[in-house]
Amino acid sequence: MTENTFPNCKVDVLVQFFRSEVLTSQEAKHFTRNDITPTPKPDAIQKLYMRILELMYRIRPECHYMMPIAENVPAMQEWVVPILHVYLRMCQFLPICHIYDFQLNDLLNPKAKRTITILSGILNFLHFRKLRREMTSEYQQSFRADVDKLQAYTMGVKEAEWKIEKLTTIPPEQQAEAKALAAALSELQITTAHLYQEVNARNEQLAEWKMEIAERSQKLTQSKVDVATLKEEIVKLKSQIVESPEELKNEMERMKENVKSIKLSKERADERLVELQIKVQGVNQYEAEIQRFCKLLQDLQSGMDKMNILQEEDQTAVAFREKLEKELKNQVAEEGQLKRALGMKNDKMSKQQIRRQRKRETREQHEQNCIGQYDQVHQKREEIVEQIQEINREAQQIKAKIQGLRDVCCQETDKAQAQYDRLLAALDQFHKRIENHAVQGSEDIVKMKAHY
User: Taking CA atoms, which of 56, 104, 231, 281 is between 20 and 30 Å from 216?
Assistant: First the structure.
């Protein structure tokens, strides 16, 4: 727990989160800061762990009280079942939250710092789970929308294919006309092919004509350049020649015409200026009216501000009144909660008394069962003692038989040893006799050699 991958949250944050996300109705109201610090309440912590497991694994509340072992377990052990069930489930769940050292003492006798670290790890995991569920729900919605679109597109494609088949398939009534049209189309294709050939030939002729036109246009441009040079030369020559009186008259007439045109343009400009002055006067009148409307709008704005201030005061008064009504309702609700808490405490006291009586009865039954079991065990013990005595007797008999066999074996080994010694002595005597006979034979041979 020294290297956590999640921060330790404050107690108020933990209480608020588990009230809003895990606990419901009365349990959320009764779960407070005092259930965690300074000394955690085992009942509240166990109930909170149960609700977390119900949220995570979708366990029904009655499953915590089901017997996970044989049915003939005495009733004295029933109170252990939910604690063991919660402990086993939490040992499976908490490694997901990076808490690897959960113990049974954290349920029976929880410590404040320890419970805060465990609850902060669970809070971190539930936040992560909530975010991932939102993302997966978005993905599912988008996937469903895509599936709907795909279905719609497939339906459209099928309808289009059906329409195409309907359009492409020719009914038997119109097959003769279709054949005639196909023959006419083939003839038109042949004629269009001939026409394309003629058009290509005409285009080749046009390209040749365009080439000729381009050459002639080049020649024309050259001739224009020559004409321009000749005109410049003519102008130079005219400047050298003295002007005639006829040309002077023509220029004077041109000047008079220019003066007339300038006067006409001046008169038109004066008329335009008058029109512009009239428009300017109209614009000034519009500006005066706009200023008057602006003043009226400012007055309306000031009136609206006053109305807004009055509305805000009215809203504050209404909010204060609603606040007082809420406080009154909360006090009434608290009074009802206190009454309910008293009723629940009385019910708990009565239930505890009933449980104590049941426990006493179960203890007495258990003691009687234990006494009966002790008698059975004592009888079995006596039977086993008798069996052991019989086995010991048989063992003593077997040991006596083994001892007798050992004595017989010792006697036989002694007899065999004596026979072995005798045989060795006889063999030694036989070897000595053989050696004596050999010596005598060698002496007889030597004597016989000397004699011969």
Answer: 231
